[in-house]
Write a structure and sequence with these properties.
alpha/beta, 12 strands, 21% strand
Length: 346
């Protein structure tokens, strides 16, 4: 999963990046995209690895991109280069400043910054849609494609993101290759002062995010970046002093998984134990395709053991003998924690 961190100058975006990745990238202006990869912790994967003792344990990974901000402390625009870098991400995380910054003349106004960012994204998407509709006058495309772009145009003109259109309303087949910014999942990181780190999102921002089909969390990057570099045993005590139960990374992952409606299934054998994130509601055949395209193409069946049953009985054979191994077809909806053994033939 690729998550791009964006934010206006002075928002603390790079400090948030350091908080989430445990890296120590210098803060300040710069034209280079910094990358940091983190493993998504999952105690269930640890437990399975302890039982199977595989040669390899593979966690889900998140690749964070620290996308360069705009130069100029009060700059509220996005360059074409920055927009393209955002298009390349699976998820966009906008860092909003909610702390005093002596380097800036203005007070923190996260709501205004959110609206400025959304306006830039809407205008960028609208430009693509209008140019496509202009070409359609000459190309004479599929009428259904024209209808989809007309719907997108109307939605954007009403200052609504494309993600607000359900799959039943908008056929996203026609969006492929365009990288529409407002169709990207959006997550907001409200970057606060240390003393406000444990306070929830303000109701005004929470309601705004709900209307935008986005999600948000609060953190204090200035102090949590330091905590992220500590030993795990020491982190808990410092987080407790801030009134926080979990690290910024753990809170971020939980929020991102909730926003994307993701669950995890597992594959387990002596060679490798691995977690696979999928969207809730994914059927067995499509889940098999996450492991390998041949598994989806030649899918026969999936042998499924729920994680809790596997742990209760301690092995595949014991779970099978107890009647907790299910043989499922291609339309089975994979549940969170399912351990799958996929049978296929190509």
């Amino acid at each position: 999963m690729r998550i791009g961190l964006v934010g206006f100058a002075g928002s603390g975006k790079t400090t948030v990046f350091n908080t989430l990745t445990g890296l120590n990238v210098p803060t300040g202006f710069g034209g280079e995209v910094h990358l940091g990869t983190v493993k998504v912790p999952d105690p269930r994967l640890d437990a399975l690895s302890g039982i199977f003792k595989p040669r390899k344990t593979t966690y889900t990974e998140i690749v964070f991109s620290d996308i360069p901000g705009e130069h100029g402390a009060e700059h509220k625009g996005l360059s074409s280069k920055a927009l393209q870098q955002i298009r390349d991400q699976d998820v966009v995380c906008l860092v909003l400043r909610a702390f005093p910054n002596p380097a800036l003349d203005s007070d923190a106004d996260p709501t205004a910054d959110l609206d400025a960012f959304l306006a830039e994204c809407v205008l960028a998407d609208l430009d693509i849609v209008e140019r496509r509709l202009d070409r359609a006058k000459k190309d004479k495309p599929d009428p259904r494609e024209s209808a989809a772009f007309e719907l997108m145009k109307t939605t954007l003109e009403h200052e609504l993101p494309l993600r607000s259109l359900s799959a039943e309303v908008l056929d996203r087949t026609y969006l492929r290759g365009y990288g529409m910014l407002t169709d990207r999942p959006l997550l907001i990181a409200l970057n606060r002062s240390e003393q406000d780190a444990a306070q929830p999102l303000p109701p005004s921002i929470a309601s705004r995010l709900a209307a935008l089909h986005a999600a948000g969390l609060v953190l204090s990057a200035s102090v949590e970046a330091e905590i992220a570099t500590m030993d795990a045993a020491d982190q808990a005590a410092f987080l407790q002093d801030l009134g926080l139960a979990k690290s910024a990374l753990a809170r971020f992952i939980r929020t991102a998984y909730g926003l994307l409606d993701l669950v995890s299934f597992f594959t387990a054998c002596p060679e490798e134990v691995r977690a696979w994130p999928i969207k809730r509601g994914t059927r067995a055949r499509q889940a098999a395709g996450k492991v390998h395209s041949d598994f989806e193409r030649g899918f026969i069946r999936a042998e499924v053991i729920p994680y809790d049953d596997f742990i209760r009985y301690g092995s595949e054979s014991a779970a099978r003998d107890a009647g907790h191994l299910k043989v499922e077809g291609k339309d089975y909806v994979v549940a969170d924690g399912d351990i799958l053994h996929i049978r296929f033939n190509v």
